[in-house]
Amino acid sequence: MTDTPKKKNAKLSHLVLISTFLILLTSSPVFASNFSITPTSLELSGSVKSGAFSVINSGTEKLNCQVDVKEWSQDADGKDIYTETKDVVYFPKIMTVEPSEQRAIRIGLKGPLSPKEKTYRLFVEEIPSQQKPTDEKKTGKISAGLTIAFRYATPVFVKPIKQQESAVIEDLLMSKGTVKASIRNTGNIHIKLLAVTFRGTAKDGKELFSKDVAGWYVLQAMARPYEVAVPKEMCKNLSVLEISAQSENFTINGKLNVQKNMCAQ
User: Fold this and answer.
1) Are residues 194 and 217 in the same domain?
2) Are residues 59 and 151 located together in one domain of the fold?
3) Do 39 and 154 sit in the same domain of this protein?
4) CA 78 to the chain's CA centroid
5) β-pairing, 42-44 with 151-158?
6) Which structural domain, as residue segments, surrounds residue 187?
7) Any residues with CB less than 8 A from the CB of 143 and at least 6 apart, and which?
8) Domain membership flag for residue 22
9) Same domain, 103 and 195
10) Quick one: which of 122, 161, 208, 254 has the fewest CB in 10 Å?
């Protein structure tokens, strides 16, 4: 008897499910050892010229890591840039941490302080271990392994003698329904933005639009751009757009009067 189209589709679906199940059985990933670093950042200064991080191996396998320190800056778009540096010394450069143990990475200043904050990143990257091949003759199965190497990039801040923390909102404008603004760091130390909020209200003060954007570090003398699209149906009724940038220690605000020609046509 010939199968009907409905029965053929049912058989095909059944075969797809079996194939997917077999793939999951034979291609299970092999995850790298679990490890963490404490503290999550380090501040050095004229009075505190050295410090240490602890690499903690919470897994069941031996952990091998390579360590590096690079100077950390940002470009005009707020993207992080890393370059080689000789301003700091650190040890070790290669390390092994046994299961359920921890080891220290020591880091120190080299040279005089700057009138502006210097920023670096300590990179700790796992060196993947060679996975032993499955004995196919004994098991009769083929196992595909995926090894994932983890890397931490931990901030190191070298504070100036006199610290100044401040920021401003620049270039707040809207065109074709998109609001843009830049948060500029006008101090001599970094700021960490927790959130940037865009809020739009009608003439009567009723809130029509609100959007939170995740913040990030803004290094000294640098700026980070943000932008948000306003839905067309809301934009035509907006009267005022406000932006609020919340850092760890202060909040800055900006305001823009909305014209209809600023919205998407």
Assistant:
1) yes
2) yes
3) yes
4) 13
5) parallel
6) 167-260
7) 26, 27, 28, 134
8) no
9) no
10) 161
Q: Who's near 6: CB < 8 A, 6+ residues apart?
A: none
Pair of tokens at residue 186: 């006008």
Indicate the number of domains in the chain.
Answer: 2
Structure-token match 């540096």, residue found: 85
Backbone angles phi, psi at 141, to 5 degrees: -125, 150
Regarding whether 178 and 118 lie in a shared domain, the answer is no
Q: Is 237 helix (H, G, I), strand (E, B) or coil?
A: coil
Query: Phi and psi of 21, rounded to 5°?
Result: -65, -40
Tokens representing 176 are 């074709």
Tell me whether residue 107 is in a domain. yes
Both 200 and 105 in a single domain? no
Domain-located, residue 7: no
Q: Strand 167-175's sheet: what is its strand order?
A: 167-175, 178-185, 223-229
Rounded distance between C-alpha atoms, residue 261 and residue 176, angstroms: 8
Whether the CB-CB separation of 231 and 209 falls below 8 Å is answered with: yes
CATH number where 95 lies: 2.60.40.10
pLDDT in tens, 205-264: 999 999 999 999 999 999 999 999 999 999 999 999 999 999 999 999 999 999 999 998
Q: What pLDDT score was predicted for residue 18?
A: 36
Q: Whole-angstrom Cα distance, residue 165 to residue 87?
A: 23
Cα–Cα distance for residue pair 32/47, rounded to 1 Å? 39
Low-confidence ranges of the chain (pLDDT < 70): 1-33, 130-148
Neighbours of 164 (CB within 10 A): 12
